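Issue 218. Parser rejects a valid record. Input:
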Amino acid sequence: MTGGFLDGDIFRGLAFRILVFLSLALLPFGLIAVVQTREIARQAEANAELSLLGLTELASGAERSFIQEAFGAGEALSSIVRLFGQQQEACVSFLRTYRDSSEIYSVVGFIPTDGIMTCSSEGGSYDFSAYTDFEAVLATQERAVILSRTGPISRDPVLAMLQPVTVRGEFVGFMLLSVPVTSIGDRPDPPSDMIPSDLVTFNALGDVLTSDRPRLITQADLPLNRSLKTLIGERTAVFQEVNTKGEERVYALVPIVPDVVYSMSIWRREDVLASAGSTGNLSIFLPILMWLASLVVAFWAINRLAIRYIRKLGRQMRLFAYNRSMPRTAMGPEVTREFVEIQTAFMSMADSIIRDEASLEDSLREKNILLKEVHHRVKNNLQLISSIMNMQIRRAPTEESQRVLRRLQERILSLATVHKNLYQNDGLERVNAGELVEEIVGQLLVVGLPPGSSVKVTQSYDPVQLDTDDAAPLTLLVSEAVTNAMKYIGDATATNPATLDILLKQRDAETAVFTISNTVGDAPAAEGTGLGTQLINAFSTQLNAEVVTEEKGGMHQLTLTFPVPHRVKLVQDY
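Output the parser choked on:
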């Protein structure tokens, strides 16, 4: 499945580059998907906040009803207080009658600015001037709701609603309506399964008025970094904050009476933000998942429809290049037309190459056969000439004539030996100079040294590979050098045995050295014609060789250093 992608340099592979371009093509769609999903997430979060606010408002319905009704009643009763003025008994009677008829309030009364209440449903006189909360509310001269855990009159927990009273625009005091906390009653069940962990109401002073749980538990669940007093003035709000225990909570704030009383529900974060959080995560992971799925499908399609067939064609081509093996079967019908055409073209090309190579091999074989036949016939002709010369030698009238003819015969036989080695050798470009020199020297020693000769001959030949163009000059040079050495070799004595040393060594990769050494006798050598030396110099020039001759310690030595390049010499086509 992953062939062609994880093998070798993946960054240069076809699959990787296609996937990169596909990613670039999908990028705008991915960005659009991210934006749309984030918008959906924001909308879901906004809906969740609205839902929390609605549930909070619904849950605080009882408190809202009592508090708003109390402020409405207080505003209505303010005119009654202004009407009765200093008529205390009439005021007390009216307020008592109103309290009894409402069945909601435990105390209804008017508190003037000095804090001494004389007009109330309870009658008598009550002093509120020493209460801290009253002083704070008196300073604001605004509506207020105060929690009294032990009411000064009823001694029960009450919510004291204070409605400002003005006479001709001048603030004169507060209308007091006390509602027992126990009379607020149970709130209705919410229409959903979402129930807050707590619901609290608090006043402008930041004091908790009511809560669903005990006071200490409620205090522990309030925001750590926000006091309730700082929330006064908000319209509606939903925010996340840690409570005093360091736990994540979500708070929904709804005003019951703006700037006076607020209701706040407390939720566990996992209960209300699970869906919104998952939507937010989807806004990131869903486009990534879609991108990965697209890449997987694209890679699977590329691998199945293209890469595996490209690799198959590559294997077929490499196998053909290695051993000229043709594909056994054509690609099946499931392969796309383009790859079938490529394989058909490759098989046609491979068949043409095989045919051309076969034709070239036939031509080369014919050429080799013809060349070997040429060398064979040249060798036969040279041997025929040698035989004729042998007959001529036997008929020569003088010894000098025989010697000259024999030397010429030796040179002809050397050339014949070269051609013999060429047609017996598998290759026609190179010849083993070691074998060639060894055979020529052997022929010369058989003729030049009679049986029982006391000359000690030492031979050593390395398998030096030589161009065929250099074979003839080398063999003729060796023939002249060996003949001269045998001609001038001295007679053996007890202290100076006659020796002949012939060596052919490969000195380095492209240089060979031929050395021939022979002992020199005490008697002066006969004068020669100098032809052998001239021929040696001429042949060494053809070989681009260096010839050095020296004589020391009773030995005469000829050293030939010649090049043997690795590259075959170019043959000019005439």
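Fixed in the parser; the record now loads. The radius of gyration is 62 Å.
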